[in-house]
Specification:
Radius of gyration: 31 Å
Low-confidence stretches: none
CATH architecture of the largest domain: 3-Layer(aba) Sandwich
Shape: elongated
Mean pLDDT: 95
Number of helices: 13
CATH class of the largest domain: Alpha Beta
Bound molecules: adenosine-5'-triphosphate, magnesium ion
Distance between the termini: 40 Å
């Protein structure tokens, strides 16, 4: 697969500049990066930014990027998430080869490092409870207080830490803390917890451990053990960098990776934390992690996004140091421009209205030839059955149309795409409701293929499907999951209050060209004039596709905001 950067000429971002300088100066012969997800949920579009950055840098340098599961919190982690994350990274087009790691694989070595910290007099077992630890920590404006357990002897600490490991203490009764500086202006340096007791089974190590290392401690050491050169993380870890460096310097690790922070992706009309996405799933607000309205990688895939469109999006937004918001329209544009190139055009009627062509012989049927892509003859043509009864889009007919309406109305003539000109001669309505149930037209046989030999013009061209041949199917229209730009803006209001009640519309009576009976699950088409749709991989059955609308032809939200 060609997944190289679509725009290799653009200037290097600040991280790539640093890496290029490190190679030029001989500090490193090649970068080694890593993508370190915690397996506590499915990946989202924010993770895609990090994946494209880390794996992209490796690819550009013919170097390696590790996939490391950061599985230090057994209470929230599960192996289903591990499998889902691997699938998503591969689907995006990246390979880790032999470089698949788990922080839990390092538990023994991490324990040994902790023992070394104690021996160096740089860690101690503290018996303050969680609340006391918090109290003693101080605030941004006040220094912390030293724990009464801070000056235990090395021997005592070693014995207590061993007893922690052996399960002799209850959860919360003891922690191992690094001995740094309770007066540091950086709260992360005020004797942070290194190990805590958790009597919980781990998805990989089972019941072997009842103490688990903390993230900050684990992460830098895992990076060092894997000899990562550049450890790329999001801005909120900037304040943790001194601690990252402290552990590596204190423990004299064989490698000292450089942590570099970049701005995380924030996208309008969505929430991006796995914790919040989990609430949407467990609360039944969406069908599952891969609900096509979700900005998870699996949701985007099911919605019809391609790996290339997501990589292009990540390339376009770039990597910087300043926090910023990206408009959802930018992501939607990336799939729109991808599918504009590749999706075959077909006709599909979402809200059918029957049209009887009264002068078309009842026993006749024929085929008209349609282009699969108007600008790409190499994508070929197809034959579309045409007959006396067809369906058109209900919105393409108006009984009393205004002047600017160029589609069908009583006495008006339009072109049926690729077929004939038709003129509306009468309208049939339901007597009680007054709803139009059928319209009658005549056609001009001389306009076969959609052109009038006498040069007469029609202003409108509409799509249609032959009633006798069309394939009935379900189509699902998706809209943005949230109705407001930033569902998280007001901390007083639960983000779920901002869910868009109209984010899902299920249309059950759609009719599409019969050629689509064979459409492969996961494949995409453009329904002319309607948007891009993909064949749902879960709910489609052979001969009976179910379509998900990926995106409309235009950005309808941009209009709403004006
Ligand atoms: P979440 O709160 O969604 O769970 P996280 O940062 O806790 O996010 P991890 O699984 O720990 O999730 O993240 C793996 C990697 O992805 C980290 O390096 C993290 O910095 C990066 N990442 C997560 N969210 C974003 C984002 N919105 N933009 C860029 N990178 C991100
Ligand atoms: Mg996390």
């Amino acid at each position: 697969m060609d997944n190289s950067d679509p725009n290799p000429e653009k200037p290097l971002d600040f991280i790539r500049q640093i890496i290029a300088e490190d190679i030029k100066s001989g500090k490193h012969s090649a970068p080694v990066t890593r993508f370190p997800p915690e397996p506590n949920g499915f990946l989202h579009i924010g993770h895609a930014k990090s994946i494209c950055l880390n794996f992209g840098i490796a690819q550009e340098n013919n170097a390696r990027c590790h996939l490391r599961f950061d599985d230090t919190n057994p209470s929230k982690e599960e192996s289903v998430y591990v499998a889902a994350i691997k699938k998503d990274v591969q689907w995006l087009g990246y390979e880790w080869g032999d470089n698949l790691f788990f922080a839990s694989d390092y538990f023994d070595r991490l324990y040994d490092y902790a023992v070394e910290l104690i021996r160096l007099g740089k860690a101690y077992v503290c018996c303050l409870n969680a609340e006391e630890v918090r109290e003693y920590r101080g605030t941004l404006t006040e220094p912390g207080k030293e724990s009464p357990y801070r000056n235990r002897s090395v021997e005592e600490n070693l014995a207590l830490f061993q007893a922690m490991k052996e399960g002799q203490f209850e959860e919360g009764s003891h922690v191992l803390r690094a001995k740094i500086d309770m007066a540091s202006p950086n709260l992360n340096m005020r004797d942070p917890v290194v190990y805590r007791i958790m009597k919980v089974s781990h998805h990989r190590t089972g019941d072997k451990w009842c103490i688990y290392p903390m993230y900050d401690y684990t992460h830098c050491l895992s990076d060092a053990m894997e000899e990562i050169t550049h450890s790329l993380c999001t801005l909120e870890f900037e304040d943790h960098r001194p601690l990252y460096n402290w552990f590596l310097e204190t423990l004299h690790t064989p490698a000292h990776p450089r942590q570099i922070e970049f701005a995380r992706l924030n996208l309008t009309y969505t929430v991006m934390s796995k914790r919040k996405i989990l609430q949407l799933v467990t609360g039944g607000h969406v069908a599952d992690w891969d609900d096509p309205r979700m900005l998870t990688i699996s949701g985007l895939r099911r919605r019809g996004y391609t790996p290339a469109s997501i990589r292009n999006f990540c390339s376009e937004i770039g990597v910087g140091k300043k926090a910023s918001w990206i408009d959802m329209g930018v992501l939607e544009n990336s799939i729109r421009s991808d599918l504009n190139e590749t999706a075959p055009r077909v006709m599909g009627v979402l809200d059918p209205l029957k049209v009887v062509i009264t002068n078309y012989p009842e026993e006749n049927e024929e085929e008209v030839e349609g282009k699969n892509h108007p600008q790409k003859p190499e994508m070929g043509t197809r034959f579309i059955p045409f007959s006396r009864e067809i369906y058109i889009e209900r919105s393409d007919f108006m009984e009393d149309p205004p002047k600017k309406f160029f589609r069908l109305g009583p006495g008006r003539e339009v072109r049926l795409r690729y077929a004939y000109f038709v003129t509306c001669v009468s309208v049939i309505k339901d007597e009680t409701t007054g709803v139009v149930t059928e319209i009658h037209c005549t056609y001009d046989p001389a306009t076969y293929g959609g052109n009038a030999p006498d040069g007469r013009k029609v202003k409108g061209t509409i799509h249609w499907v032959s009633a006798a041949h069309g394939l009935n199917c379900q189509v699902r229209l998706y809209d943005r999951l949230f109705a407001v730009e930033n569902p998280d803006a007001d901390k007083e209001v639960d983000f779920k209050e901002h869910l868009n009640p109209d984010s899902l519309t299920i249309l059950k009576d759609c009719v599409v060209e019969p050629s689509l009976a064979q459409a492969a699950p996961g494949s995409s088409v453009q329904f002319e004039r309607q948007g891009y749709f993909c064949v749902d991989v879960e709910d489609s059955e052979p001969g009976h596709p179910v379509f998900n609308r990926t995106v409309g032809l235009r950005d309808s939200w941009a209009k709403k905001q004006r």
